[in-house]
Amino acid sequence: MSLYGTMRTGVSGMNAQSNRLSTVAENIANANTTGYKRASTEFSSMILPSGNGSYNSGGVQTEVRYSISQQGATTFTTSASDLAIDGGGFFIVEGANGQEYLTRAGSFVPDSEGNLVNAAGFTLMGYEYEAGVDPTVVVNGFDGLTRVNLASDGLIATGSTKGSMGANLPSGAAVGDVSTTSLVVYDSQGNTRILDFNYEKTGANAWSVEVVDRTSSTVLGTQTLNFNADGSLTATPATLTTSAMTALPGTGANLSALTIDLTKTTQLGYAFNADGGNIDGNAPSKVAGYQIDSDGIVYVKYENGKLDPRYRIALANVQSPDKLRPESGNVYSQGVDSGVIITGFAGSGDFGEILSGALESSNVDIAEELTAMIESQRNYTANSKVFQTGSELLEVLVNLKR
Hints:
Blueprint: H1 3-29, E1 39-46, E2 59-66, E3 74-76, E4 83-86, E5 90-94, E6 100-103, E7 109-110, E8 116-117, E9 123-128, E10 146-147, E11 156-158, E12 162-164, E13 167-170, E14 178-186, E15 192-203, E16 206-213, E17 218-226, E18 239-241, E19 259-261, E20 266-268, E21 273-274, E22 278-279, E23 282-285, E24 287-292, E25 297-302, E26 307-313, E27 315-317, E28 325-327, E29 331-333, E30 342-344, E31 353-356, E32 358-360, H2 366-399
Parallel strand pairs: 12-19, 13-20
Antiparallel strand pairs: 1-2, 3-32, 4-31, 5-6, 5-9, 5-27, 7-8, 9-10, 9-26, 11-23, 12-22, 13-21, 14-15, 15-16, 16-17, 18-19, 24-25, 25-26, 27-30, 28-29
Helix pairs in contact: 1-2
């Protein structure tokens, strides 16, 4: 048996326990860090070849692992920009160096430029979004992503471009009878304009609708409506497209051409009844805040209550999250054994839902860490005794010459 080997084994054990204490210290220090994932030290034996008459003591080696796939508890906050993921996936964030990383730390707040930035200074990334049209996802990369920016542009007005109008036209009306309803629309400067819809019966199961700008009495468009015997339109969908108006009287604004859906129009034995049309666009209004839904769609909220979708937050995942490479700032990059990064949206595939006004806590258990600390302290002391004993025996051996 080699005394030097005994001492090396003792040192190996002390180094291993020192590494374990280091991960324990890191876990305890980050017990309140949003989205932090617990580190642990795993031990494996080192065996040295031995002869028949002697034994060479080996040692122990360590590997640090992170419980990245283990979700921490969810805590709710009063900030709409605090985000947590209920399920799999990671937020995609951009560092100061322009490189994308993955994180579960969703404590985002707008910075001086309006970008959503978390406590470590990483910027949330997403796709620009148009209502009703999902952006195209680059499944295996970060191309197309942009910073989620909620900077206010002051007063914002949006001109109308499309809407709908439904009505019941009385089947017992005489040819030439006219019924009228109106729809408020918005010009390019957010001024309201009233359009009159004049329905005139032209024959059996036949009507025409004329759209007139009330201010100028200008006819903007007409459409013929024909009905089946059951009172439904013969052709659906039915649309009416108006002409644009430039330099509107008194404002100098423009009114865009409008596409009006008339599909809900019927002809039944009932009095004329407009079902209440709707139109897009809005009058001038200030940004009053924002909200984020469970699908990750980021809306800007105006004082008039209108919600304008701006972005859809992208999520990412890998086949082996625990093999991701931890980086400073509680973020992760792709590791050698983590697998390919796949991007998508909340609520689809293996991606969880996004919780607004919530944060994911650290998955550290303080009681477990304190227990591990006591164990490591005792084991470190025991290994130091092995080293001390080997040193004393070596001293005895040296003193034999005396």
